[in-house]
Known about the structure:
The structure is a homodimer. Chain A is built from eleven helices and 15 strands. By secondary structure, chain A is an alpha/beta fold. Chain A has two domains: 7-135 and 298-319, Rossmann fold, CATH 3.40.50.720; 145-294, Dihydrodipicolinate Reductase, domain 2. In chain A, helix 1 crosses helix 10 and helix 4 runs parallel beside helix 5.
Amino acid sequence: MTDEPLTAVQYGIGPIGSRIVQAANRTGVEFVGAVDVDPEKVGDDLGEVAGLGESLDVTVTDDAADALAADPDVVFHSTVSSVEAAAPQLTEALEAGANVVSTTEELSYPWWSNATVAEELDAVAREHAGTVLGTGINPGFVMDAMPAVLSTPMATVESVHVERVQNASERRRPLQEKVGAGVTEETFEAEIATEAGHVGSTESVAMLADALDFDLDEIEESIEPVVADDRVETEYVTAEAGDVAGIRQVAHGYVDDEAVVTLDLQMYVGAEDPHDRVEFEGEPDVAVAVEGGYHGDVSTSAVVANVAPTVVDADPGLATMTDVATSYSRHR
Amino acid sequence: MTDEPLTAVQYGIGPIGSRIVQAANRTGVEFVGAVDVDPEKVGDDLGEVAGLGESLDVTVTDDAADALAADPDVVFHSTVSSVEAAAPQLTEALEAGANVVSTTEELSYPWWSNATVAEELDAVAREHAGTVLGTGINPGFVMDAMPAVLSTPMATVESVHVERVQNASERRRPLQEKVGAGVTEETFEAEIATEAGHVGSTESVAMLADALDFDLDEIEESIEPVVADDRVETEYVTAEAGDVAGIRQVAHGYVDDEAVVTLDLQMYVGAEDPHDRVEFEGEPDVAVAVEGGYHGDVSTSAVVANVAPTVVDADPGLATMTDVATSYSRHR
Lengths: 332, 332
């Protein structure tokens, strides 16, 4: 770790990408390039596009090769959820000699569902002595890396159950609509269930199981509506009693038909006690609660910015958050 | 990481050392030597001395060189709290080519109070391509490495406050006596306050401050009695109302006269709500509680056993838990 500021290229300047720019700028990262396909953003200054309130003297381009020519230490990548779709972008960044921290959900642990892409990215990263990591608050921390760390003082772990309950009332309109707040159960089944799912639950189950040394046979996911007991009114929607308030998505990892890993994610309007909670059975049992739960929007960009120095120093290859989660020195 | 079992020497077979042998044996570690100065233990089998209930085919010796000749991957070291006192033992193990995981409290982060010894150990470790780490539940995890990890999703950290409250009623007689349960406040001041203190608070403050990028000016510690409000009776002692129930030890790390790190450790009989609790001020505020708190006795040996594979694979030198805490694959 040197005292030289890290240099970075921002690849994708949507809502999350903009927050990453803000978070990384605050930690002292020096931006040297920016990529986005949106013609409205190309040609503008990164600081302006990312809502920083000041210029960064970096012009947004739609030509990734052009931005990567600045030879950044790290590329902050935030474009798509699918690792297959992201792979060409990640590969180009690695081939340019950069390390990559990405919010592509399926990249957080692609070895289970996308093993071929994982092997290819790992090989490219090693060949070019770079590290590539997929991260965020979820997947990437609260339901996978954090529980892995919290198990350190346990002699044995028999099973783990993680519950994340978020109150969608406090979130933006698109999020409330996405989880089906205010629709009927019939509409939920027809229109919401197939679209609303959080991407990354399978990856979190697989990552956490790997860290806990569970050799999983199977991972299963389910999505169901959370139904409002009482009327809930938000700034944007109203859910009458009996209407859908949001979603509940549960993922199980099985060994011999026993669910050794359970991740229970609930996001609905009117949630009265939002929290993150980890419960282990083992020697001894352990229960840990994050009061109110980690904030969804702030946290992903903070995780990306905070782990960047560790990723730059890490061994080459495709890393996961259980490799690097704590090994960082925070830049305030 | 290979699938070969780690080989280990146990150096020090007191209560904690014995638990380490049990925990490591369960994870598949193969013991190849054992050292203790107690003539009652020398010549006996390690499994028997450590209360394993089975032989390990390892004879305890008081000659460290003899045990180290077995060329172990790792030495589990558990003899003294002082890093200065431990240094010759650690050095001998490193010079023999081993990695070392030690419960020497002051080794957890010796750079603040014992910088010269830290530099010497770091140099010896690098010279012999080994890693040496001081760890345990506290110092080593609950008041330093764990809070560092829990700050990962925060954009900024302004201050951190960690509280660990343990109920001494459930612990052994020597522990209850050590914290002064049942004595008067006068006796506490005269006989207990100077002896009862937990070793490692300064190290935890310094380690956590380093991880959070606080450049501390000063660390201060204080010890005071916890006085019983009501009569408390345990298996071993009775504290009348007004008597001492145990100790409260508070350590502060200061930047510009502001306490940015506060560690508050309380251990007393009759504690009704034992817990570990981490509170951050920053963006955003975060509060995390370990219900009931991590178990003091089980946890230290589990931490030692669980981090061993990571320490064996780590870069050479004197490591701290914020370098290695999550980067492990658990061996169940």
